[in-house]
C-alpha cells in the first residue's frame, strides 16, 4: 500500500514535468509572436526586440525552461537584468520561491493570480458538485425505482434535454430569466466565504445551477442504468429471500453496489471542474482558473499559461489518484499494487 | 384436522405463474400441485425453462412487484402465502422458509463480508445486536464445516472457494432454523466432490433441524441421493410424481424414460454416446396442443388414434402415490419398460 502510494506520487511528479515541457514546446511552436503583441501600429523591429528582451523571450527555449524550473525551488527577479537592477532597483519585482513566474501583461506575480483565482473556481466547483450529485443521483435512483411509469419517462427526458443544452446557453438563460428579468438572485459575483457566507452562496447560486444541470443529466442516466442493472442481480433476490425489508434492499444492497462506480466518475468530474470551468466562469464573469487561462492564452502570456495548465493537470491527476485509493477502500475486491 | 393435513407443511394447489411479454403470455408454471411433509425432501427435476425455479420463487413471493401473474394456492402450515400481505410474508422469508441459490458467487453481495450477510439474515428476524448476530453467524459457519470460522467471518465472498461459498449460503439459509428449505440447483456450480459434500451436509442438517427440503435440479443423481419424493416437470406441468424409488424403478412416462436414459453411467462402454431426448423444450407462449411432450415423444405411435396431439392427458394414479400424465396404456408402458435393456435403472 505504502509502496503503491509512493509509486503513484512519483509518477505524478514525472507527469507534471512532461506536461510543463510540452506546454513550453507548444507555446514556441505557435506562429504568433508575444513580443509583437506588446506594441501597436507604429512598432519598429528595434522596439519589438527590446520588448522581447524585457519579456525574457530572447533567451534559448531550454534556458527559459530551466529558469522556470529553477524558480520552483529558488527565488527569481523580474526582469532578470543586472543593468536594470543596478540603475533602477524599484522596477524589479522579487518573486520568492516557489516562483511560478511573472506576468508582464498583468503586472502581477503568477502565484498571486493563481491564489486569487483558485478560491473562485473551488467555490463554483464544490457547490455545483454537491448539487449535481444530490440531484443527479437522487433523480437517477428514483427513476430506476419508478421504472415504466410516466414519472420516469418525464425525468429521463428532462435530463436528456438538460444534457443536450450547451453550458453557455444554460448560463445565459438563467442569468437573463432568474437574475435580470425576475431579480430572484443577484448576477453572479464572488464574495469570499469567510467574509460573508450568505453573499458567497447568493453570488454562486447561478453558476452552481448552470454547471450542475449539465453534469446532473449525465448522472441521472448513469445512476438509473446502474440501479436497474443492480436490481436484477442475484444478490438482490437473496436479500429479499432473507426477509430484508424493501427499503433496506434498496438502500443497503442495491445502492451500495450501484453507486460505487459513480464515485470514480464523480471524482474525475470534480477534478475536471476544479481545474477550471472556463465557460461558466466566462459567462458569469468570474475570474477563476478557467477564465484566467483563457485570457492568458489570448495574450500569449506564457508564465500564466504554464501555471494554469500545470495546476489543472495537477488537480486532475491528483483526483485520479484519490479516486483509485477510494475505490480500493469501497470495493473489497480491488487490491492496489 | 385429519392426520394427512397435520402432516403437511407445504401444500401447493393448481399453481400458475404467467408472465405477460410483448410476444404473448408465457405460461412458465401451468397448474402444478404437490405437498410436502415436515422432515421430507422433494426433488423437482426438469430441463431448463420447465418452471422449476419459477415455482420455488413463487413460494417465497419473489414475483411480487413484477408483472408476473400468480394464481392457485400455496399453503404453508395452513397459511395461504399467495394472499398474505407482503409485510407478513416478509416475516416468513428467510425465517420459516429459506432459500439456497444456484450460483453462490452472484447470490452473495460482493461488497459485504460473509459474516455480515449471515448476521443480517439473523437480525432481520431477531432483535439482537450486531455482535450477537455475528457470534451466531460464526456458529453457523462452524456448523457447515468452514474451518477458522471466526476469521473467515470477516472475509468477502470472492475470498471463498466455490464450495465454501455454497456452505456459507447454506449457513445463511439455516441461521433462523427454517421449517422449509428450498435449494435451487444447490450443487450445479460446484465440482463433483464438492457436490457430494454439500449434499451430505444438507442431509446432516436436515436430520438435525428436521426441516423439509425442496431440491430443484436437473441432476437426477442429486434427487436419487437426497430426495424422498420426486416431481418431474415439463413445460410448466408435472408429468410424473411419486416416491423416488417408484419413479426411478418404475418410471411411467416417456419423458422420464428419456431423462433417466440420458444419465451417464459408469457401466456403459467407453466411447458410447449418451442417449438424448430429440428436439428442444417447447415454447411456453404457445405450448403444443394435446400432450405438451408429444412433438418429442418416441412412443406416441403406441397410442391409438391421435389422442397425444388432440387431447391433453391428465395426471392419473398408476400405483399409490405415483402420478403420471400420459396417454399410454398401463400395459403398453409395462411392456416398453420391460424391453428397455438393463432396465432404466
From TrEMBL, chain A:
Keywords on record: Cell membrane, Membrane, Transmembrane, Transmembrane helix, Transport
Residue intervals of the ABC transmembrane type-1 domain: 118-327
Membrane-topology annotation of the record: Multi-pass membrane protein
Any one biological process term the GO annotation gives: transmembrane transport
Presence of keyword Cell membrane: yes
Main location: membrane
Keyword Transmembrane helix on entry: yes
GO cellular component entries: plasma membrane
Any Pfam family matching the protein: BPD_transp_1
InterPro entries, per database record: BPD_transp_1_N, MetI-like, MetI-like_sf
Protein location: Cell membrane
Signal peptide: none
Superkingdom: Bacteria
Listed transmembrane segments: 9-30, 117-142, 154-178, 198-220, 262-284, 304-330
UniProt xrefs under PROSITE patterns: ABC_TM1
PANTHER family attached to this UniProt entry: DIPEPTIDE TRANSPORT SYSTEM PERMEASE PROTEIN DPPB-RELATED
Family from the record: Belongs to the binding-protein-dependent transport system permease family.
Protein name in UniProt: ABC transporter permease
Species name: Planosporangium mesophilum
Automatic annotation (TrEMBL), chain B:
Similarity comment: family membership: Belongs to the ABC transporter superfamily.
Recorded GO CC terms: plasma membrane
Pfam families: ABC_tran, oligo_HPY
UniProt entry keywords in alphabetical sequence: ATP-binding, Cell membrane, Membrane, Nucleotide-binding, Transport
GO terms of molecular function: ATP binding; ATP hydrolysis activity
Lineage: superkingdom: Bacteria
UniProt organism field: Planosporangium mesophilum
Keyword Nucleotide-binding tagged: yes
Domain ABC transporter: 12-260
Subcellular localization(s) per the UniProt record: Cell membrane
PANTHER family per UniProt: DIPEPTIDE TRANSPORT ATP-BINDING PROTEIN DPPD (PTHR43297:SF2), OLIGOPEPTIDE TRANSPORT ATP-BINDING PROTEIN APPD (PTHR43297)
Gene Ontology biological process: peptide transport
NCBIfam families per record: oligo_HPY
Name this polypeptide is given: Dipeptide/oligopeptide/nickel ABC transporter ATP-binding protein
Record-linked SUPFAM superfamilies: P-loop containing nucleoside triphosphate hydrolases (SSF52540)
Subcellular location, principal: membrane
Membrane topology according to the record: Peripheral membrane protein
Amino acid at each position: 500500500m505504502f509502496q503503491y502510494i509512493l509509486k503513484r506520487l512519483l509518477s505524478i511528479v514525472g507527469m507534471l514535468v512532461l506536461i510543463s515541457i510540452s506546454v513550453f514546446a507548444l507555446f514556441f511552436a505557435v506562429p504568433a509572436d508575444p513580443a509583437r503583441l506588446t506594441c501597436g501600429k507604429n512598432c519598429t523591429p528595434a522596439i519589438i526586440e527590446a520588448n522581447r528582451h524585457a519579456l525574457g523571450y530572447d533567451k534559448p527555449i531550454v534556458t527559459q525552461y530551466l529558469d522556470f524550473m529553477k524558480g520552483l525551488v529558488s527565488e527569481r527577479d523580474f526582469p532578470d537584468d543586472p543593468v536594470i537592477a543596478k540603475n533602477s532597483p524599484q522596477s524589479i519585482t522579487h518573486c520568492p520561491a516557489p516562483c511560478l513566474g511573472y506576468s508582464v501583461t498583468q503586472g502581477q506575480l503568477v502565484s498571486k493570480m493563481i491564489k486569487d483565482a483558485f478560491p473562485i473556481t473551488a467555490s463554483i466547483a464544490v457547490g455545483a458538485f454537491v448539487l449535481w450529485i444530490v440531484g443527479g443521483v437522487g433523480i437517477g435512483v428514483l427513476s430506476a425505482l419508478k421504472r415504466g411509469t410516466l414519472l420516469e419517462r418525464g425525468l429521463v427526458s428532462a435530463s436528456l434535454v438538460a444534457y443536450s443544452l450547451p453550458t453557455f446557453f444554460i448560463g445565459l438563460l438563467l442569468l437573463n430569466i432568474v437574475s435580470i428579468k425576475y431579480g430572484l438572485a443577484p448576477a453572479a459575483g464572488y464574495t469570499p466565504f469567510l467574509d460573508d457566507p450568505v453573499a458567497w452562496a447568493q453570488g454562486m447560486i447561478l453558476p452552481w445551477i448552470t454547471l450542475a444541470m449539465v453534469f446532473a443529466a449525465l448522472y441521472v442516466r448513469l445512476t438509473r442504468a446502474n440501479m436497474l442493472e443492480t436490481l436484477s442481480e442475484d444478490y438482490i433476490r437473496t436479500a429479499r429471500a432473507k426477509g430484508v425489508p424493501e427499503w433496506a434492499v434498496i438502500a443497503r444492497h442495491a445502492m451500495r453496489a450501484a453507486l460505487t462506480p459513480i464515485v470514480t466518475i464523480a471524482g474525475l468530474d470534480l477534478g475536471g471542474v476544479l481545474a477550471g470551468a472556463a465557460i461558466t466562469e466566462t459567462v458569469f464573469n468570474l475570474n477563476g482558473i478557467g477564465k484566467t487561462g483563457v485570457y492568458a492564452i489570448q495574450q500569449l502570456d506564457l508564465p500564466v499559461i504554464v501555471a494554469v495548465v500545470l495546476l489543472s493537470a495537477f488537480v486532475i491527476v491528483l483526483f485520479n489518484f484519490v479516486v483509485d485509493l477510494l475505490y480500493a477502500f469501497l470495493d473489497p475486491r480491488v487490491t492496489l499494487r | 384436522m385429519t392426520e394427512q393435513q397435520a402432516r403437511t407443511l407445504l401444500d401447493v394447489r393448481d399453481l400458475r405463474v404467467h408472465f405477460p411479454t410483448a410476444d404473448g403470455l408465457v405460461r412458465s408454471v401451468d397448474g402444478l400441485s404437490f405437498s410436502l411433509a415436515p422432515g421430507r425432501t422433494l426433488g423437482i427435476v426438469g430441463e431448463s425453462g420447465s418452471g422449476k425455479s419459477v415455482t420455488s420463487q413463487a413460494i417465497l413471493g419473489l414475483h411480487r412487484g413484477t408483472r408476473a401473474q400468480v394464481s392457485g394456492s400455496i399453503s404453508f402450515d395452513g397459511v395461504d402465502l399467495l394472499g398474505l400481505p407482503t409485510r407478513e410474508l416478509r416475516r416468513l422469508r428467510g425465517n420459516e422458509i429459506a432459500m439456497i441459490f444456484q450460483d453462490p458467487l452472484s447470490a452473495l453481495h460482493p461488497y459485504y463480508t460473509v459474516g455480515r450477510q449471515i448476521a443480517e439474515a439473523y437480525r432481520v428476524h431477531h432483535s439482537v445486536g450486531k455482535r450477537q448476530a455475528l457470534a451466531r453467524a460464526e456458529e453457523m459457519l462452524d456448523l457447515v464445516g468452514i474451518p477458522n470460522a471466526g476469521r473467515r467471518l470477516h472475509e468477502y465472498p470472492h475470498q471463498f472457494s466455490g464450495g465454501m461459498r455454497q456452505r456459507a449460503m447454506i449457513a445463511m439459509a439455516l441461521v433462523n432454523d427454517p421449517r422449509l428449505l428450498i435449494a435451487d440447483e444447490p450443487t450445479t456450480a460446484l465440482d463433483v466432490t464438492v457436490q457430494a459434500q454439500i449434499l451430505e451436509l444438507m442431509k446432516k442438517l436436515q436430520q438435525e433441524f428436521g426441516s423439509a427440503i425442496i431440491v430443484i435440479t436437473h441432476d437426477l443423481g442429486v434427487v436419487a441421493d437426497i430426495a424422498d419424493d420426486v416431481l418431474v416437470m415439463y413445460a410448466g406441468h408435472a408429468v410424473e410424481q411419486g416416491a423416488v424409488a417408484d419413479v426411478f424403478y418404475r418410471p411411467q412416462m416417456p419423458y422420464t424414460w428419456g431423462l433417466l436414459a440420458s444419465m451417464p453411467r459408469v457401466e456403459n462402454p467407453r466411447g458410447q454416446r449418451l442417449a438424448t431426448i430429440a428436439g428442444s423444450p417447447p415454447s411456453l407462449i404457445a405450448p403444443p396442443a394435446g400432450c405438451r411432450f408429444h412433438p418429442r415423444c418416441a412412443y406416441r405411435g403406441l397410442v391409438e388414434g391421435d389422442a397425444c396431439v388432440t387431447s391433453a392427458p391428465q395426471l392419473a394414479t398408476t400405483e399409490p402415490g405415483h402420478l403420471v400424465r400420459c396417454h399410454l396404456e398401463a400395459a403398453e408402458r409395462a411392456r416398453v419398460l420391460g424391453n428397455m435393456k438393463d432396465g432404466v435403472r
